[in-house]
Amino acid sequence: MISMPISLFVAAGALALASTGFSPMASEGAPARSVVAGDQKDVVDTAVAAGSFQTLVAAVKAAGLVETLKGAGPFTVFAPSDEAFAKLPKETLESLLKPENKGALTSILTYHVVPGKVMASAVTKIDFAPTVQGGALRVETSDAGVTIDGARVVKADIECANGVIHVIDRVVMPRTNIVETAKAASSFTTLLRTAVAAELAETLATGGPFTVFAPTDEAFAKLPKATLESLLKPESKGKLAEILKFHVVAGRVLAKDVVKMSAAPTLLGREARIVTKDGAVMVGDAKVLKTDILAGNGVIHVIDTVLIP
Hints:
Elements: E1 7-9, H1 13-17, E2 32-33, H2 43-50, H3 54-62, H4 66-69, E3 75-80, H5 82-86, H6 90-96, H7 102-110, E4 113-115, H8 120-123, E5 128-130, E6 136-142, E7 145-148, E8 151-160, E9 163-168, H9 178-185, H10 189-197, H11 201-206, E10 210-215, H12 217-221, H13 225-231, H14 237-245, E11 248-250, E12 252-254, H15 255-258, E13 263-265, E14 271-277, E15 280-283, E16 286-295, E17 298-303
Parallel strand pairs: 2-8, 3-9, 10-17
Antiparallel strand pairs: 1-12, 3-4, 5-6, 6-7, 7-8, 8-9, 10-11, 13-14, 14-15, 15-16, 16-17
């Protein structure tokens, strides 16, 4: 059952172009605002001058990103403070700073950077912020303030010559792709097996963003055994691909927007009917069991029946 409303996230192009600033929050937890006037430094030099981002600056140097972040940009940096980095296990941080882990460190740091100068007032109007790393940060706004992947924004709108910094209280980690997220859940073994058989697993892992209405193993078990076995045969690859594409929608569609929809346009080219009634959401003949499982390249909603186009 879905307790919060379902929304088709349509692209982040507007995010990169937005340049207005975080609207003030009503509560104590609201982010403080700080606007730099006069001669402005670039993102890196601003962080150095602040004195509270020593670990972040050290990490940027270790990842070889200094020149990039001193470039024209513009960049929006959700910057973890030294206190935020201190929340990481000491051995984790030490490991990330080693030369052999430069790739992993770069992925984490670029996950904190959004192209364009995105002021706070624009951030509060979006659900996701696409990052330089390739994933998207989940943005949630409430009376308590703004969170970025669960990290609280504690200070906003520190303007720089080549962008803006928003301070967050925790280091955020990139999410795995849809396929890896489904594997970790351990309840989509058959779905993943069919994705491999239909040669769609690579697309679901590297493409997107996608929203997947994912049937559980129990959902696939409702199909006649002979039907599933037939679909998994090489000669049925086309039919299997059609069925799987009927479960996938382009873009990130959160639960809060799905409940407002009467149909979802699928990758198959046909619409899946959506009905919301008495707190339950039906996609075709399938009931939505769990929503908003976020992945690096999309979102998963769990359903209890395989959709047949």
